[in-house]
Write a structure and sequence with these properties.
Elements lengths: L2 H16 L4 H12 L4 E2 H8 L3 H14 L2 E6 L2 E8 L3 H34 L4 H25 L3 H9 L1 H8 L1
Antiparallel strand pairs: 1-3, 2-3
Helix pairs in contact: 1-2, 2-4, 3-4, 5-6
């Protein structure tokens, strides 16, 4: 690994732990993201100096997230792996997966809790109000996310760059 690649991979691994992701998994992703060519598991193992089993587990999980895929290289029977290279596509996939794994189940739970608290009457009135408020927040923000994610990238970039102008206009 070059010094710049090593610096990035180590940082991405550290950030991964802060995002709730296994350090090795984040490092595998970083290496694949920055690599100019697909890599096979032995190359990843050697570059990172980690156990082959950790690399295999990380690759499966990254594939489950939809951010790494298997590719085949002519003349080599081993599976090679590459990351989504486009930064916007990568982060959109991560957001989609986080929504599916974290937000959607939370919305289902909140709906259930609000309904249960409503049936319990006065004993759960305070809890029902707080949970309904939280549910409304999640529903509002996910509805906004659905609208935004449907924009073409060029429109999304314009929208993002309008940030401060929009804030001043709304004030």
């Amino acid at each position: 690994m070059t010094p710049v690649t090593e610096k990035f991979v180590l940082h991405w691994g550290e950030m991964g732990t802060r995002w709730g992701i296994n350090r090795t998994m984040a490092q595998v992703h970083a290496l694949l993201f920055i690599s100019a060519k697909p890599l096979h598991a032995e190359e990843i193992t050697e570059a990172l100096g980690v156990a082959r089993s950790n690399v295999s587990t990380s690759l499966r999980e990254l594939q489950g997230w939809g951010i790494v895929r298997i590719v085949h290289v002519m003349g080599d029977r081993r599976d090679h792996f590459e990351s989504i290279k486009d930064v916007w596509d990568l982060f959109q996939q991560v957001l989609e997966e986080r929504k599916r794994r974290e937000i959607d189940p939370t919305i289902l739970l909140l709906r259930d809790c609000v309904a249960e608290a409503s049936r319990a009457g006065a004993a759960e009135a305070h809890a029902r109000g707080k949970l309904a408020e939280l549910l409304d927040f999640f529903l509002t923000t996910t509805a906004w996310y659905e609208q935004i994610r449907g924009l073409p990238r060029s429109a999304l970039l314009k929208f993002i760059k309008l940030g401060d102008k929009l804030r001043r206009l709304l004030n």
